[in-house]
Amino acid sequence: MRALGIGNYPFPNDDEGTYLAQAWAVQHGELAHYTYWYDHPPLGWMQLATMSWLPNWLLPDLPTFVQGRIAMLPVAAAAMVLVYVIGRRLGLARPTAAAAMLLYALSPLAVVLHRQIYLDNFAVLWVLVSFAFALSPRRHLWHHVAAGMAFAMAVLSKETIAVLLPVLLVTLWQGSHPSTRKFSFAGFGSGFVLTGLFYPLYALLKGELFPGAGHVSLLGTLKFQLGGREGSGSAFEEGTDAHQLFTDWLDRDPYLLIGGAAAAVCAFAVRRLRPAALAVLVLTLVALRPGGYLPQMYIVQVLPFLALTLAGLAQAVIARLPGKPHLRPAAALAAVAVAAVLAGPHWYERDRAATAADDNGVYHDAARWLRETPVGDRDQVRVVTDGVLWLDAVDAGYRPGTGVIWHYKLDQDPAVTKTLPHGWKDIDYVVSTPALRGEREHLPTLRDLFAHGTPVASFGEGGGRIDILRIENDE
């Protein structure tokens, strides 16, 4: 289902292009396609780099963001399998664990967000690996060391997932034997710390751990990420970005979100379900904190635990029903039927829309224009694009970095601005996408480019259109 229409829906997010371009940079021996400023740990796009080359090689005519989305399919598949494994290790019966996996796999939120190129998808995969090791029924010490290493891999894929550390510790407490518990915690801590130290050690060796003049720094960027970003407002206040996000998430899948959250509250009464319930609680409290920054893809981190708590609580309730035990399978079938009647039509409509929609023809057309339209010597022509089309322009022969310029870097990166001594006059073309038009009031050079650009090609209509602007310089 995730593969059907993967290039046509949803509309590309600029983050997708950024991570894909950074993966391309890793394939060429760098950590980022521009100055790496420690915005995120690089492990996420390193993993993407190991996977994205195959779709690029097999399907070279597709836009690069579609190739990257295809590379995300194995990540989604592995996460589904791990939900089943964790369900079994939480004490769920095979049918219940399979039901949790299906809840996770078929949720309209998962169908859309798992096909997009987000670091959160890699982080969730490694968190699930960590939970699976922490709950290993064999309780081997190396399993708990591996749980710590896997959790470090999750944090190095997307640092915000670190809020689940207390949940992993509770899970490890529950999954370890009392007589060897201290060794289990020592092993987990060793695996986590020794693996995670590679990132600050890299910054230290580069002289970029601490803030200073003339260079980026890990701690300086971390300070910005924690307190310097504009907040999303309160989820309870209408008109804020956080409220809009929650409204959108609930519109897409109210059944798993509300049902899973309610189940998580009740699941604290069931000992074996507490790790999943605690994960839901922690991630929900972080999302609801006032004034914090809440990204669109954050909900990805919560979905597997919502599915596990909902399916697990249903099993626990059915197991405690009074009466004859042989009636419990009938009660389970009745629960499945009720869920199908309530959520089935909504999920079907949402999932069908995601697989049948065709919203991205403009990006396909723009990528084709970059590849096929003669504009002179592409090594000398300078074009500004959004993050999504940056790599398409590179593949088309434009010089990476300063020949094809990510719009965000026009006024933000000294390495780029010093190559533009005449400002906007040194640019030949702008690929005007919704992302660029949304930023032009904040970037002076981009605003000047729009003021002096003449359309030479246009794809689509309305706010989603893409225009190719040739910059008219009369001097």
TrEMBL record:
Location (main, coarse): membrane
Designated name of the protein: Glycosyltransferase RgtA/B/C/D-like domain-containing protein
InterPro entries: LipidA_mod_glycosyltrf_83, RgtA/B/C-like
Keyword Hydrolase: no
GO cellular component: plasma membrane
Superkingdom classification of source: Bacteria
Matching Pfam families: PMT_2 (PF13231)
Presence of keyword Lipid metabolism: no
Keywords from the named record: Cell membrane, Glycosyltransferase, Membrane, Transferase, Transmembrane, Transmembrane helix
Ranges annotated as spanning the membrane: 70-86, 92-111, 148-173, 185-205, 254-270, 275-292, 298-318, 330-348
UniProt-annotated location(s): Cell membrane
Membrane protein topology class: Multi-pass membrane protein
BP GO terms, sorted: lipopolysaccharide biosynthetic process
Molecular function as annotated in GO: pentosyltransferase activity
Domain Glycosyltransferase RgtA/B/C/D-like: 69-179
